[in-house]
Specification:
The chain contains one helix and eight strands, in the order βββββαβββ. It is globular. The strands form two sheets. The protein has a four-stranded mixed beta sheet, with no helix packed on it. Strands 4-3-5-6 form a four-stranded antiparallel beta sheet. The relative contact order is 0.28. By secondary structure, it is mostly beta strands.
Length: 116
């Protein structure tokens, strides 16, 4: 399956449908935008970010527009927001394996892990 992501809105107890996500390839301090997309009704991408044939060993960043998502849901947020964008930097050591990067998020906290 390559690389995938999934976002759950823990404030409302539902998938984060409509959240914008950006995928970057990183090297040191530089980042190259590879994809910009919006999560579907299930808080997922419509297709894997990379399939197994396209995934390469290296470092990547997923950036999630948390404040934009919660503002669109009508959640009153302070200015400045506590969480604006959540960026997760991670490495792919085995391109033949599946890397799933889920995000559990509220306006005040987040958690992630390597999923299956």
């Amino acid at each position: 399956m390559g690389l995938s992501t999934h976002v759950l809105d823990t404030m409302h107890g539902c998938p984060a449908s409509g959240m914008e996500v950006c995928l970057y390839a990183t090297e040191g301090d530089s980042a190259t935008l590879l994809q910009r997309l919006v999560l579907n009704h299930d808080g997922r991408t419509d297709a894997p970010l990379f399939d197994n044939a396209s995934l390469r060993i290296g470092t990547y960043r997923l950036t999630f527009d948390v404040a934009g998502y919660f503002k669109a849901r009508g959640v009153p947020l302070p200015e400045p927001n506590f969480l604006n964008r959540v960026s997760l930097d991670f490495g792919v050591a085995h391109a033949d394996q599946h890397y799933h990067v889920p995000l559990l998020v509220s306006p005040w906290s987040y958690s992630t892990y390597r999923g299956s």
